[in-house]
Amino acid sequence: MTAHPSIADHGVIGDQQTAALVSIDGDIDWFCSPRFDSPSVFGALLDDRRGGQCRIRPAQRPYRARQMYFPDTAVLITRFATDAGTGEIVDFMPPTGKDSTGTHRIVRLLRCVRGRITFELDILPAFDYGRRPHTVRTSVDGAVFDGGDLGLTLHGVREPGDARLAQLQITEQGALQGLLPLSAGQVRGFVLDTGIRRPPTAIRVAEVEELFDETVRFWHGWLAKSTYRGRWREVVHRSAITLRLLTYAPTGAPIAAATAGLPEELGGERNWDYRYTWIRDASFTITSLLSLGFTEEAADFARWLRNRYRAQGDPLEVMYRVDGSTDLREEILDHWAGYRGSRPVRIGNDAAGQLQLDIYGELLDALFQADRAGLRIGHAGWQDLTALLDWLTTHWDSAEEGIWETRGGRADFTYGRLMSWVAFDRAIRLADRHGLPGRVESWRRQRALIHTQIWESGWSPRRRAFVQRYDGEVLDSSLLRMVQVGFVAPGDPQWLSTLAAMRHELVTDSLMHRYDPAASPDGLAGAEGTFSLCTFNYASALARAGKVTQGRMVFEKMLTYANHLGLFAEEIAVTGEQLGNFPQAFTHLALIDAALTLDRALDDEGEDYDLSAITARPSP
């Protein structure tokens, strides 16, 4: 029980158009509507006084709280034990489907399991990041919060004829507060509807239980498509569900994380808005889901991407809103205190205007993997890709901001060149495989030029390692992907030397830093934690290099940093605390990739095998 729960003290629920974070104390302290990237309705995670919350917790003190997911679903159960009894909250959002809608439902079912328990209720929305005032009116069946452009209706859950147990009042601040006493076997609760303005109505328990059953069937049906049968099934499937929760169903656009403004360093300024669709992150997400047998998401993303290109042409933007629009102007919420005083709180993201050349390689690799899974590119889609490659042919040798979105100026980043090599390589393979038209000989020349340039300029004889940028000596863990994409052999001495240098300079115990900001200034003050994506990539790289036992230990240690539900944020602080936006798609997709890589390596361990057999290099 804390006034400001930690980032990791949360579970996530969602309907594939938006999501809510529920703390282990039973508080919804992050929820945006009607979309992931819409203004917040509840934002106490970033300002406990002005952010707004939907708080339910036992009135009895002390209490003990535990959380779990209903198995293989996104239905969250928070359980409370007090000296008088045991109760629980069942939280979920019924899936909304692929039609974009402004109406979303959060179901909060309360029950007393044993003895007696009294719940405290405190519901105070803060529309538009707390910038828009609201009015509230109540009736015998619930309440309506009117925020102008957006409304929130609370429908009470009870059977006809049941006693009205809740004792509620409206505060001067427009909050609905009160007590709900329950005894063993009693069930109550409420349903929060956003986007509709109609009087509240009593909803029968049986109706809510049917919504629960439908939501469970949806998630069980979706997860049944998984082909994963490896050693880490529970954590892999939790990661897959999380990636699906972070995908906007109407367009198929995956977002990077459900939140904005959570810090990479407590009290620092690295507080970004991740509620958008990065081409890079989305491509990685699709590749990871494809590796588990989920193909529908790849098809949806390809359609979304084709629409972006036809609406805009080349080059692609680094990121988009989930509907494909590009207005991501960054602004600061000066009236919010920030997570544990970490300011500024930013919404929007100015990195949208950067040049990041790696996105084309990640995109082409995702489409290549989709092709291998039987999702062939149509004629119009291929024409769009060849046009993108024409643009890349004349721009791959440009300075850029790079994968880490530095704000200290452009540079010749090795990773950007590496992924440009991947873009041409995958296009060549697709053309050869299906006899597709294109400037294949030009693509071969570009691929060869990039290959030579990386070996000549991206390799540092002094460091005996591939380095972050051509004019520097700094190591960068983004280059852990060099083997995975097939640029270098896993047993190549120069690659093994690079891996050893990274271990010496970027690894703390088993945790991997992105790079050293002190050695390579990125235009921002302060430091950051270790980067969880990179740690999982490090585990994969070790396994591909034949260091399977080391790779497994890195992986298993990293799993201990997950929260109580198996969820990860972006980074890990020196204290072991999770930092950054949450839950983070980057981390969960890298977990999936590492588990698959380790499964293959461990299955082959002890046999006389070629190390390239566990390398994710595509076959010609």
| Biggest beta-sheet profile | 15 strands, antiparallel
State the helix count. Answer: 14
Beta strands, count: 30
> Helical content, roughly?
25-40%
Rg value: 25 Å
Low-confidence stretches: 606-620
First-last Cα distance: 56 Å
Mean pLDDT: 94
Given the C-alpha coordinates, what overall shape results? Answer: elongated
Query: Which class do the helix and strand fractions yield?
Result: alpha+beta
Strand content is: 15-25%
How would you summarize the topology of this molecule?
Blueprint: E1 10-14, E2 19-23, E3 27-32, E4 40-42, E5 53-58, E6 64-69, E7 76-81, E8 85-92, E9 104-124, H1 127-130, E10 135-139, E11 142-146, E12 151-157, E13 167-170, E14 176-183, E15 187-194, H2 205-223, H3 233-245, E16 247-248, E17 253-254, E18 260-263, E19 271-273, E20 277-278, H4 279-291, H5 296-312, E21 319-320, E22 331-332, E23 346-347, H6 358-372, H7 379-395, H8 414-434, H9 440-458, E24 459-460, E25 465-466, H10 481-484, H11 493-506, E26 507-508, E27 511-512, E28 530-531, H12 532-544, H13 548-559, E29 571-572, E30 578-579, H14 585-604
Antiparallel strand pairs: 1-2, 2-3, 3-4, 3-5, 5-9, 6-7, 7-8, 8-9, 9-14, 9-15, 10-11, 11-12, 12-15, 13-14, 16-17, 18-19, 20-21, 22-23, 24-25, 26-27, 28-29, 29-30
